[in-house]
Write a structure and sequence with these properties.
The protein is 20% helix and 27% strand. By secondary structure, it is α+β, with helices and mostly antiparallel strands.
Length: 141
């Protein structure tokens, strides 16, 4: 599963206000021919990214190439069950990536359009944000 190799700070504030607005970066297809674009905002965990990646690779049967454009940098802390209030912030439980509308989460190439569409549809079911299938627009069309 994806997680940062090292961090400057072990714990961060949640900053739920950063879920507002549209993605200004990573909002167009850079590497592949087809992509999975987020339509709603949310946080996706490293486990969800891995589940979606496995769904894609299982469907395309080791054909084509996949790029993962979302990386979980943000640590989320969680206190243990039945722990009383106070006594500081909890331990790091998981890492998430903040997804804004317009962000490309996965890209694919080397497979047909229908295969890519179905593979990315299956991946979208594993994610907590609404997604849509997008194609790379060639200049000159």
């Amino acid at each position: 599963m994806l997680s940062p190799k090292k961090q400057k700070y072990r714990k961060q504030f949640r900053r739920r206000s950063c879920l507002t607005g549209k993605a200004m970066r990573g909002n167009y297809i850079s590497f592949g021919e087809y992509g999975l674009k987020a339509v709603s905002a949310g946080e996706i965990t490293s486990r969800q990214i891995e589940a979606a990646r496995r769904a894609i690779t299982h469907y395309i049967k080791r054909g084509g190439k996949i790029w993962i454009r979302a990386f979980p940098h943000k640590p989320i802390t969680q206190k243990g069950a039945e722990v009383p209030m106070g006594s500081g912030k909890g331990n790091v439980d998981r890492f998430v990536d903040v997804i804004k509308p317009g962000k490309i989460i996965f890209e694919m190439d080397g497979v047909g359009k229908e295969v890519a569409k179905e593979a990315l549809r299956r991946a979208a079911h594993k994610l907590p944000v609404k997604c849509k299938f997008v194609e790379y627009k060639h200049h000159g069309q």
